[in-house]
Amino acid sequence: MNIDASKRALRRRHLAMRSRLTADDIEAAGAALACRALELPELVDAATVAAYVSVGGEPGTYALREALRARGVRVLLPVLLEDDDLDWGEDEGPGRLAPARRGLLEPEGPRLGPEAVTGADVVLLPGLAVDRRGMRLGRGGGSYDRVLARLAAAGADPALVVLLYDGELLDEVPEEGHDRPVHAAVTPSGLHRFTARPR
């Protein structure tokens, strides 16, 4: 099986597992995940965090985003562009989110431009799994591959953190040439580091 087919099969498997979660499962995992994430030193010290609004079976990000905002952290949220690249807007709270394409919720405020993410201290990435090298399995749309390439091109070095459920840490995720490792994963039961970051 080639790498692309292996990724598709792995995505199907993990999406099927997530589809069996109840709303209570997702909310409880999101609360536990927020507690764990807030222990991450990079988030403790962050002034700006690029996050996202979880949808469907994704681990909930609401509690984490609200806790960051309560600390005075500037939280950026993605805005999906027509070409599947990401623009960014500021998280002004749950009452300031609007429905968008693909069932997403996006900030209603001004657009800050795709380059805004280069000013983040931490980028929280969605994913379906990550392996012990920090290689992340995304949904396959390529939006976050563009974000990671943009960060590299700008010489930006934020902490890259993927938010997952327990059981989504794998021994190996199929890897392509454009894939970039994340530094850490947060699950409801703990923090997992993969690559050292200079401090």
From TrEMBL:
Glycoprotein recorded as keyword: no
InterPro entries registered for this protein in UniProt: FTHF_cligase, FTHF_cligase-like_sf, NagB/RpiA_transferase-like
Record keywords, A-Z: ATP-binding, Magnesium, Metal-binding, Nucleotide-binding
Transmembrane segments: none
Known cofactor(s): Mg(2+)
Domain of life of the source: Bacteria
Residues holding ATP: K7, R8, A9, L10, R11, R136, L137, G138, R139, G140, G141, G142, S143, Y144
NCBIfam families xrefs: MTHFS_bact
Annotated PANTHER family: 5-FORMYLTETRAHYDROFOLATE CYCLO-LIGASE (PTHR23407:SF1), ATPASE INHIBITOR/5-FORMYLTETRAHYDROFOLATE CYCLO-LIGASE (PTHR23407)
Name of the molecule in the record: 5-formyltetrahydrofolate cyclo-ligase
